[in-house]
Design goal:
Structural class: alpha/beta
Number of strands: 13
Number of domains: 2
CATH topology of the largest domain: Rossmann fold
CATH class of the largest domain: Alpha Beta
Helix content: 25-40%
Shape: globular
Order of helices and strands: EHEHEHEHEHEHEHHEHEHEHEHEEHHH
Oligomer: single chain
Number of helices: 15
CATH architecture of the largest domain: 3-Layer(aba) Sandwich
Strand content: 15-25%
Length: 374
Amino acid sequence: MIALATEKRKILVIPTGGISYEGITTVILNYFSAINQEGLDFDFIAFNENDDKLKEKILQLGGNILLTPHRKKDFKGYIKALGKIMKNKKYDIVHVHGNSATMTIETLLAIRHRIPQRIVHSHNSKCEAIRAHNILKHIFPFTYTNALACSPEAGEWLFKNKSFLVLKNAIDIQQFKFNKNIREAYRKEFNIKDDEIVIGHVGHFTEQKNHAQLIEIFKDIPNEKYKLLLIGQGPLKNNIVERIQELQLDNRVILLEKRMDVNKLMQAMDVFVFPSKWEGLGLVIVEAQTSGMLTVASTEVPEAARASELLIRISNNNPSSVWIEQINKVSKYKRIENDTELLHSIKSYGFDIYEEARKLRDIYLTDAHKSKHS
């Protein structure tokens, strides 16, 4: 049942990891860019030290930014600030994005401040805060009204035998479709020759993304025409840089920091390689396929990330030679500008952000007492 409200529904969006250049923020921004905001009023929680460019993007899209201390670095300050915001603003909905039962922290606060609709959104199939997750997982199911997940695997991990709705990590397909002019311009910028093959990767430098294995795979490729393009930041980046230097691969590896033009950088790549140790879905996997690239990922990336026949999944237990065999299949794939068959495939697999945003809007406009997943 859709509520016939005369006033705008006030929504507080809480990314538990803050507003950053990671997957969850990208998903949130994709949905916010595409959703019909009529009848909806959005506030977003950001940590004080979060990136100003991302905050500005939210403001440009019509949202409002509310600052709190960092959830991990100043937990008491975060709880105090978030509680004050909830008390003063009187929201209809709180939408919490995370990957563990620690979202109970936000949902309990929402209950305390009488927010009727409490949406929890699972974005991964594992979490790092496992101790806190195990403590809170028994309380968690009683604190939310809606359970969402980016994939069946992410939902099963967090909600177990409770029901949930899969809302895919969808994208604006037009932004990622192959463009020959962009490809030529970006390859020229980074001095990539026409006959060179670029292996691409986009991801935060953490244990999850498994850059260490990616480097080991790359070092075993004897062909000097292969280059590696790594985009991202993170706590393990220095370790990876040191390993690259140790292997004397500096002249074959291009390292970039966080970027707002990943959709264009993907045009410069030839094959995308993603040996993650765990993933809820892997948004960049969908983006890579949409750009027309052969995409080689670990089996820890769910089958739900498939948007085309371009995705090949391999176990991380396989030696480098197996990965390289699949990477070398890039020679069989020719990226086509305006590939209507590929774009139709992306849509048919449910990755059109405008369609998925309509589903989210319906959830926001559904009466809270009718929306419980149990």
